[in-house]
Amino acid sequence: MSVRLTLGPHDADRFEFGSSPGSEALRSLHVLTAVKRHPLHISWVLEMRTRLDARLKSDLDAFRFWFADRPLLLPEIWPPGEVNTWPDDLALLRKAPVEHFAEPMLHAALAHRGRARRMPLEALRGDGEALRGDAGALRGNAGALRGNSGAQERALGQALGQALGQIGHPASVAVFRELIADPEGVRERFADFLAAYWDTCLADDWPSLESHLHAEIARRFQAMSRLGAAGMLADLSEHISGVGDGLLVGSNQSLAQAGTAEVGTGDHTGTPGRIGAPGRMGAGERMSTGDHTATPDRIGAPGRMGAGERMGAGDRATTPERITAATDGSVTIRPPGARGAADPLDVMLHEGDRVLLVPSHFMWPELAVAVHRDQSPERETTTVVIAYALAGMARQGRAPVPAEDLLALLRAASDPTRLQILELLARRSRSTRELAGLIGLTEAAVSKHLKVLHKSGWITPERHSYYVYYRLESEARDLLVTGLDRMLGH
User: Fold this and answer.
1) 3-class secondary structure per residue, 33-97
2) What is the C-alpha to C-alpha distance for residues 268 and 307, in angstroms, rounded to an integer?
3) Which residues lie across from 313 on neighbouring strands?
4) What is the chain's percent helix, strand, coil content, to nearest 5?
5) Regarding beta strands 255-257 and 368-375, do their DSSP bridges make them parallel or antiparallel, or are they unpaired?
6) Which residues of 354-392 are buried (b: 16+ CB within 10 A; e: fewer)?
7) At what angle do helices 416-427 and 432-439 cross, to 10 degrees?
8) Would you say 450 and 459 are in contact if contact means Cβ atoms under 8 Å apart?
């Protein structure tokens, strides 16, 4: 499924940024348990495994089911726009209503192919004996849960009874049973595990990770100025490109449930440097406005936008990345695994709506998008959330420049005259006659060199009245620099 977001010229002030240490920790646990999906983080995972003691390994195994396919998210506990430190997030986890912890875990357990209804905790506990029954698979027959039968609780018990044994994570079966019988106890155990995991694996690196988040927010804040809202979005990921009059967001699953349309592309994230990243938000994983996170105070330094801080139209700065030109509403997001050409869900922003960008160290190689609609007596508001990998990880994860392209550029430039032409064109576009006069050759000789440079992709001709001007292709320059840097860089 896809989502088309139509952006107007004044929608830049609807953009906000958010990220939280708690959500980053949950995403990192996904990377730790599903490292094959996150090849850039293998070194980080190997190092983290050496730090885990027997107790942490046991707890990780117990909760593994909730991280193996996608990260567990706790949107009601760590909502977007709030500025918290890790101690704040941990305190919120321990003190929040227990259903804000238990229901996302139960939802993930009941999901079948990424989809399931969100069931209240009390309804799930209604048929306690059946729920605590023998084995089955947590993800088994979710279809039984979507009916309107008055025997829903019995159907739920039967579905879980048929499912638990096939889960593939036997240690998690006991946790699930405890979650039904004693959600407070499981929540406390999970909080203790997360606190110990943070201290062991993330605490020392968090200042560095936080600074990367800070830099990412500043980067996007600046890109908004030059490129506009759609252009800045197009620079978030290699899966995003211009598409006319709307932002098209693709995903590997489509969801429309109880007022929430969700599109997950596999929330992966990456971290610059040696820090690996976790997490993928899978389709069907409820990512409402509360699914996104807030960034600690110090991420928002002077002159930069902090997490949860609104980006006003007057706050724009400078700088594009890979995008050379864009206008509002001209972006398409096509994540890996996006399904077919189904009609997209159209979203247009109105007063009170917002777009929340969630940079993460643990999102690479994908991104995730969710559209959450919040009903109130007065009106409905929409929040579009896009979780994406930091620019540093995206650069590290790009495939190498094909050797033939790099060779073609190098061969074309391996002539003194052609190097002179490239240097002159780097300053501005020029005609054949002007180049001939500057270099001291005939126009026919210069034309032969221009033909070689054009064929290799170095330059592009443009007609101006009676003259043909040639301009240097910035993409060719970038390909050469990127290719050589990958081969020979530090």
Assistant:
1) HCHHHCHHHHHHHHHHHHHCCHHHHHHHHHCCHHHHCCCCCCCCCCCCCCCCCHHHHHHHHHHCC
2) 19
3) none
4) 50, 15, 40
5) unpaired
6) bbbbbbbbbbbbbbbbbbbbbeeeeeebbbbbbbbbbbb
7) 120
8) yes
Q: For residues 481 and 490, give the distance between their C-alpha atoms in angstroms, rounded to a whole number.
A: 13
Dig out the tokens for 208 from the structure.
């560095």
Burial of 109 (0-12, 13-18, 19+ CB in 10 A): buried
- In what side-by-side order are the strands of the sheet with 2-6? 240-241, 332-333, 247-250, 2-6, 345-348
User: What pTM was computed for the model?
Assistant: 0.64
Q: What whole-number distance in Å separates Cα of residue 374 and Cα of residue 312? A: 23
Helix (H, G, I), strand (E, B) or coil at 15: strand
State both tokens at 415: 């002539």
Question: What's the mean per-residue pLDDT of the chain?
Answer: 73
Strand, helix or coil for residue 310: strand
Strands of the sheet with 15-17, listed across from one edge? 255-257, 260-263, 368-375, 380-389, 354-360, 15-17, 310-311
Neighbours of 44 (CB within 10 A): 26
Distance CA 470, CA 436 (A): 13
Query: How many Å apart are CA 272 and CA 212, to the nearest integer?
Result: 7
Amino acid at 425: L
Amino acid at 237: S
pLDDT of residue 442: 95
Cα–Cα–Cα angle for 120, 121, 127, rounded to 5 degrees: 105
CA distance 225 to 14: 14
* pLDDT (tens digit per residue) in 280-315: 333 333 333 333 333 333 322 323 333 333 333 333
Cα–Cα distance for residue pair 248/344, rounded to 1 Å: 7
474-488 and 403-413 are packed helices; what angle lies between their axes, rounded to 10 degrees? 110
pLDDT tens-digit map of 347-397:
888 888 998 999 999 988 878 877 888 877 778 899 888 888 998 887 777
From 84-98, 355-369, 441-455, the region with the lowest mean pLDDT? 355-369
pLDDT surpassing 80 at residue 324? no
What pLDDT is recorded for position 347?
Answer: 81
Peptide bond into 365 cis (omega under 30): yes
Rounded CA-CA distance 477/82 in Å is: 42
Report how far Cα 238 is from the mean position of its chain's Cα atoms: 11
Name the region of 237 (left: φ>0; alpha: ψ -120 to 50; beta: rest): beta
Q: Among all chains, which residue has been given the structure tokens 């009170």?
A: 352
